[in-house]
Amino acid sequence: MRIGVVTFPGTLDDRDAARAVRLAGGEAVSLWHADANLHEVDAVVLPGGFSFGDYLRCGAIAAQAPVMQSVIDAANGGLPVLGICNGFQVLVEAHLLPGGLIRNEHQHFICRDQKLIVENIDTPFTNQFEMGEEITIPLKNGEGGYIATDETLKRLEGENLIAFRYSEVNPNGSLNDIAGLRNERGNVVGLMPHPEHAVEPGFGPDTSVAMRSGIDGLKFFTSVIKSFAVNA
Amino acid sequence: MPKIIVEVMPKADLLDPAGKAVANSLQRKGHEAIANVRIGKRIELHYDSTPTEADIAAARAIAADFLSNGVIEDVIDVRVEN
User: Fold this and answer.
1) Which residue has the higher pLDDT, A56 or A191?
2) For chain B, what is the domain count?
3) Which of A52, A58, A93 would best serve as a mutation to test chain B binding (most B beta carbons within 10 A)?
4) DSSP per-residue codes, B18-71
5) ipTM of this predicted complex?
6) Cβ contacts (< 8 Å) between B25 and chain A: which residues?
């Protein structure tokens, strides 16, 4: 399975995302912001970072990049798209997911191992989890506070569009503890925390078993490969 | 609520990276008529009652030595808005 990883100017986690794809058994394909060609990938990851310097609003300029018009069209056609951190912000600015992300409530950049509850397993990126499972992956952002209108929040809750919720600690003031969303069709998933940083023993979050042994993020990538195998 | 509005812009001859990034994006989208973009700040000072002349003078001073950095920015406007 070919999984595209987009690099914008200012993207930071593209190499980690590509590595996560390979560790899960997929082929990582580098996609470039100025190239509208998706090179026949079967899924796309929009990785974290500070695309275009976070100028104007986080993700706003990246959402206008040539590659994104292709990603938007393909996503509307059902292509699995995962947005991580800045990638989530790009998905929101591209109107593939609703709401907005603002400066953390406490105004500090935050970097921590974050517990999440899996709220929806009916997506290509969450099908290997169990409903209600608690996972731990790193979180690192300055503008991760999720906001939306009351009407949108009601719809997100009512239509089961919340993919992940923060557990124990709400690290940034996100409404309804929202850490990640899916779209109506389920093929587009975005979240602030970083699954690609928890895919290899020795480099992930601490667990009760051993330091840095957490690999809960790997299932995001094995999920999409599984869904591809099922649909192929 | 009565306000004093302070507008701050990066100096004309200085690189404005945010403005330039937005301008480049607009160019790529085909808005060729837009030659340049510059991004500044609008800062609102809120008051419980209509600002006095002294308040306005104080706001000008705050705008000059705190809300802006004269080396890199210009205060474009300080005005009362009720």
Assistant:
1) A191
2) 1
3) A52
4) HHHHHHHHHHHTT-TT-------EEEEEE-SSPPPHHHHHHHHHHIIIIIS-TT
5) 0.73
6) 52, 61, 64-65
